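Protocol step 4 of 5: obtain the predicted structure for the target chain.
Materials: sequence only (see below). No template structures provided, no constraints applied. The aim of this step is simply to have a reference model before the mutagenesis design in step 5. Sequence pasted as it appears in the construct record:
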Amino acid sequence: MDKYAVHVQEEYGYREWLWAPDMTIEELKVWWKNLPTVAPYFFEGPVNFPGEIHQIYFHEPFSFSFIKEVEGRTVVPLHPDPLVMPEDIIHMHIHEDSDSYLVIDGVSYNHAGYVTYDEYNDEDYESAPEVKDAWDKALNDDVIKKFGSPKEDK
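Step 4 output (structure tokens):
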């Protein structure tokens, strides 16, 4: 299997990641095209993507460092000198189902749950039940992570 990397941008620069998938590029395309929603990655980012994933910080457009996020969302570089992003890097953007995409060799791919921005923001739009459930689960998991499980009344 050829080695390659994917630059993953989370929510328009909120966080950046470098991902080494444990699949071929063709398998990556299939994985992405079959992804029903990006909801599981909305709060935590791509930390559970298959393969190896590392958070990065850009110093300049193509210069980055691997980082560690510590308390208060402060980031600490893991090495002294910046690295240069490869020119042939694959790009991915994850945020919502209406704006997430994968770009390989200049060709853009949508995930299975992609909807247009206009459709997504239409007041009559209703997502598929499994997509709604995934978004509800992502929100619930994030609330529990931040505030703990709800206490039962006695």
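Step 4 remarks: The chain has one domain: 6-147. The chain has a mean pLDDT of 91.
Proceed to step 5.
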